[in-house]
Amino acid sequence: MSAELGLGLTSLFVVALVAALTPVLVGLFGRLRIPQVVVLILGGVVVGPEVLDLADPESIELLANVGLGFLFLLAGYELELAVFRQRAGKLAIVGWLVTLVLAVGVVAALAALGAVKAYVPVALGLTTTALGTLLPILRDNNMLRGSFSSYVLAAGAVGEFLPVVAIAIFLGSNGRFIGLISLVAVGVLGLLLSLVPRLSHGGRIARILSEGEHATSQTTLRWTVAMLLLLLVVANDFGLDVVLGAFVAGVVLRRWAPGNVETLDHKLDAVGYGFFIPIFFVSSGMGLDLQSIVEAPGRLFLFFILLLLVRGVPTLLVYRTALPRTRRFELVFIVSTALPLLVALSEIGLETGHMLPENAAALVGAGVLSVLVYPAIAVAIDRRLARTQDPLAEPQP
């Protein structure tokens, strides 16, 4: 066995051990309601080169990139495109555009002061919402009830989808115009892939796929992974980031996948959250620049506050005719929660040279803090509302 392979296996074991211990630790300290993604990142910090130096992030880089792909595959998979035609979706888009304008203005000022190197990735980071991270918290606390859930899901979907598109255009390695053309090309490819089931509907191939869905051949899962990797390869060849290819794969997957979609949900969760996605988060923690955070903690708290002011506060104005005041405050803290895209943006920004290491570390640290603090405040507001008459809490017909 070569030394390189041995190092990779050792690092993978350490990362897998952190991933296995995470739900146990979360369960032991359940009263604190710490999201697993935070524990995974902190675990990566502990086993990484900055602390114990038990694992090397470069030796598991490929698996971490696939984990990033799975994360956004599942985010795109949960996105209902029809939401953009509804009032909740339109308000969410308006809110995100207001946030974008504010983010560009605020971060441009920071760039003028020399606090950031290039403001595009930081500005985009301030427009994100961690819907995938929030969903388990919202579901566990029964916060997705009544018509309010449509506003939450729409705001979260827009907070993930539009920043991904902006990343593809503005942070692509071949320039903005080529990035836009490449974005369209990947979208067209995704559309063509979504039409494939119609070609085989009712035919022999469709029957083979359906019969093998639950057998050892696992046909639907294998074809899903193949489509994900195809779009990752295409996105990479076009100079885009894996985030875009994975998100497009998720958007078309529900239409594309043959067989029982609900069963496929469970399989994707098992493969993604059971193995690949934890590797990405632990690897991200291993690469976190702790020294820069310790030397300048003010950056972390600045980004933490800006997430609330730039992403959350516009909600109070945008939704003034749609939601009661208390519900708007609850939504403020929900949409201000950001982490997975911040991790992805930091990785991309460092790789392309668009982001200073200290800002990347501070941005991820602010995301971790936002996951710890903002959902807890939203839960407290919701519990207070549950004790009173809330017209938006009634189940939808």
Description:
With about 400 residues, the chain is an all-alpha fold. It has a single domain (about 5-395), classed as Na+/H+ antiporter like fold (Up-down Bundle), CATH 1.20.1530. It contains 19 helices and no strands. The protein has helices at about 5-30, 35-45, 60-80, 85-110, 120-125, 130-140, 150-170, 175-195, 195-200, 205-210, 220-235, 240-255, 260-285, 290-295, 295-310, 315-320, 325-335, 340-350, 355-385. Helix 3 (about 60-80) crosses helix 12 (about 240-255) and helix 11 (about 220-235) runs antiparallel to helix 12 (about 240-255). The longest helix is centred in the C-terminal third of the chain and has 30 residues, at about 355-385. It is globular and about 55 Å long. The mean pLDDT is about 80.
